[in-house]
Amino acid sequence: MRQLLFSVTLALALAGAAWPSAAAAPRLEKIVDSGRLDVCIWPEYFGISFRNPRSGTVTGLDADMAGVLARELGVQLRLVDSNFARVIDDLENYRCDVAMMAVGITAERAERLAFSMPYLRSDVFAVTTRHSPRIRRWEDIDQQGVRVGVSAGTFHEALMRQRLQRAELVVVRAPASREGELEAGRIDVFMSDFPFTRKMVDNHDWVRIIAPPTAYFPVDYGYALAKGDPAWRARLDRFLEQTLSDGTLRSIAARYGLDPIVINGPR
Questions:
Q1: Alpha carbon 255 to chain centroid distance?
Q2: Is 0.70 topped by the overall pTM?
Q3: How far apart are CA 18 and CA 180, in angstroms?
Q4: Can you tell me the distance from the alpha carbon of 179 to that of 204, in angstroms, rounded to the nearest whole number?
């Protein structure tokens, strides 16, 4: 009998250890009880969650969608500044309830985070200057003497570290920016995605975007959250399914020129 009780106790302990996050209060319950939804954003993400340096207003697809979600939940919205270098820690330490900043769904991130269903898909694009003497086409990027910028913590960092054979990889960390480093001539080109590069064209007449000649590394984007809360994840999926179905998400995406990369939802 004593051995049986020990075995049951051990089994229960191991079961609890396997689900450490389940012991915490479910995020959806916490959000409703507190009356506030905390959303991590990257405030430099053109088209997704960009903070205007003059007005302080944050606009973009995910910033607007965060507002829609907060209204559906009947709570106030608080935007929490983050970036791709620290968003995993921000979610695991509950500085925010969800990251709505077009987070690329990669195997490395999925080891520590849970993701909603995907809602965007983008390949990699290159940004250089209109009069760059070195970068005229995609094939010019991975060449000796070329400095290729990536933002720290983005999937582009790991990707280009793996793909580049000749060029020098330059990891740009805040408060520096890839566009600032490019304009200053400290890099020759930087790698980004569809949302960021489209807004670069809209806001800077000196940039040129280079698309890969064939698919380079298409990635699906979703909302990211801490592991261990299936109810919160399911609620985010229902939100995306609903807004894809009724056209809300695509309508907001079109406002920022992002409708071409929206993944078709239920009809």
A1: 19
A2: yes
A3: 45
A4: 10
